[in-house]
Write a structure and sequence with these properties.
Elements: E1 15-21, E2 36-41, E3 44-48, H1 54-60, E4 68-72, H2 78-81, H3 84-94, E5 100-105, H4 108-118, H5 120-130, E6 139-144, E7 148-152, E8 157-165, E9 168-176, E10 181-184, H6 192-197, E11 203-209, H7 214-220, H8 225-234, H9 238-248, E12 252-259, H10 267-275, E13 281-284
Helix pairs in contact: 9-10
Amino acid sequence: MEHHRPRGFVSERASRLVLLGTAGGPTPKVARSAPAHAVVVNDDIYLVDAGNGVGRQLVRAGLDIDRLRVVAVTHHHSDHIGDVGTVVLLAWGTGLTSAVRLMGPKPLKNMIDSYLDFADVDVRTRVADEARPDPHGLIEVHELSGGGPVYEDENVRISTCLVDHPPMIAHAYRIDAPDRSYVFSGDTTPNDDLIALAQGADILVHEVMHLPSIDSLVEAAGAPEGLRSHLVNSHTSTADVGRIAKAAGVGMLVLTHMIPTDGGPSAEVWTQEAKRDFDGEVVLGEDLMEL
């Protein structure tokens, strides 16, 4: 798969990556927020996943939430989409005036329509009391059915591919900015299409699981065999993530969505195992880290 910078780019424009939430799993964590990452170009925000609390994380990162341009959903597990409607409503309440593109697998449109029904009283009140524009006209939902280019504006070009996170439909995303390219794995097992999507990218942000540590997580959940099977068959181990980064020829590997988030190995173990097969820089993601 060949990737290009968007047409009309000015090369000196700088982009940055902000890790807003690096936890894995549906339960709230003390030290890490739910999954969400932002690429920022010219102060415009391109968000990948919108876990619970992402609005506050954007503000804590010093980003202008009303500059939200895109929310790209990888899949519909609750930790990744808990605030997908809320973050847009918060941006609207802060002063959003330009359209936001929401993209992801079905049934994203039904989900957003349902959220707007839920928020109807608040929306109508603020339109009347605060002279805000109707948010329905600021939300563009694009349901994805496969891979390829899915979005382009003056700042970025976004492409996607399907990845393996059964039983859900799941996507990875590549964001090509003026100066750097970023790839976000979402939740997946090792996947050749993801490796192709990430070819030559500057930064690969990839989920990771430490297999020897999942016993405590499964036991804390009551030891359901279905959970163990899901973890093993739907995520990428520390032993594999370095090989993926090497095969893709990326410049930097950023580990996120650590499983387990609580009770896992030390930071040194996470990064050392990834470095066995990858000679580039390996970074253990932390909330509000900027790269």
